[in-house]
Amino acid sequence: MMDCKRKVMIIDDDKDLVLLVQDLLEDNGYEVNVAHSIDDAYEKLTNYKPDVILLDINLPDGLGFELCEELRRVSQVPVLFASARTSEDDKVKGLDIGGDDYIAKPFSLKELLSRINSVLRRTYGSKKQMGQIKVAAGSDIMLTIDRACRTVKRNDALLCLSPKEFDLLLYMLEHHDVALTKEQIINDVWGAFCEVEQTTLAVHIRWLREKIEENPSKPSFLKTVWGVGYMCELWKND
Fold first, then answer.
1. pLDDT mean values, one per 10 residues, the chain (238 residues)
2. Do residues 90 and 64 touch, judged by C-beta distance below 8 A?
3. Are 33 and 78 in contact (CB under 8 A)?
4. 191: domain CATH number?
């Protein structure tokens, strides 16, 4: 079975605390990636796409505030500040620059887990909403997408999609009937600060079209929006 775990990135230089939080999250079914500095976080975020970031403010090479501001220029991944800085001004600043929540150190692990779960529910919906969705991709094509198990069926045939193809398809579906720029898609699907070329996106779109479209050379589902990027247009029976 393919991995269905939610991904958490912890950015904190308190290694003892990080180990405690990592054990807690992994025991509760999360995948965890750790960075101990801003530079470390930038490097890992080029290839890793977390579902939520747990971010300290005082880091060895700068402030978590600065990292959050940079993230918000390219990504809407939820950010939960966890810091020993407990002044009202710090909390307000953290939320004003794009943080989704703020928890003061020392915190209880149970409360932290509850807050992470809450942020994920607000951002991505409940576990119930993580089930199957069905969409028409053509007059004779029905796609069944199982978010939890990360599988896609075209009518009754199971499609063989790479993890990134699945991520891209799901992203396009979640933003259907909206013209998306190539930069926006790359940032949101491949991750913040990535160095993916636009040709890589074009290749993945072509691969998806070959697996989904009735006529890949004349796509009616994953359409090119010239001068902008791409759009997933759900099929309508006129």
1. 72 96 95 96 89 96 95 88 94 94 94 93 65 83 84 92 90 92 90 83 96 94 95 76
2. no
3. no
4. 1.10.10.10
Shared-domain flag, residues 100 and 172: no
SS3 230: strand
CA 65 to chain centre: 20
**End of a domain among 103, 124, 145?**
124
Q: How many CB atoms lie within 10 A of CB 83?
A: 21
Q: Is the pTM above the cut of 0.85?
A: no
> Using the 8-state DSSP alphabet, how is residue 129 labeled?
G
Question: Residue 106, preceding bond cis, omega within 30 degrees?
Answer: yes
Please tell me whether residues 18 and 114 are part of one structural domain: yes
pLDDT tens, 25-65?
999 999 999 999 999 999 999 888 898 999 999 999 999 99
| Residue span of the structural domain in which 214 resides | 163-232
Report how far residue 153's alpha carbon sits from residue 130's, in angstroms, rounded to the nearest whole number: 16
* Sheet (strand 141-146) strand order: 132-138, 141-146, 151-154, 157-158
Total tally of structural domains belonging to the chain: 2
Same domain, yes or no, for 14 and 115? yes
Task: Using the CB atoms, write b or e for 213-233: b if 16+ within 10 Å.
Answer: beeeeebebbbeeeeebbbbb
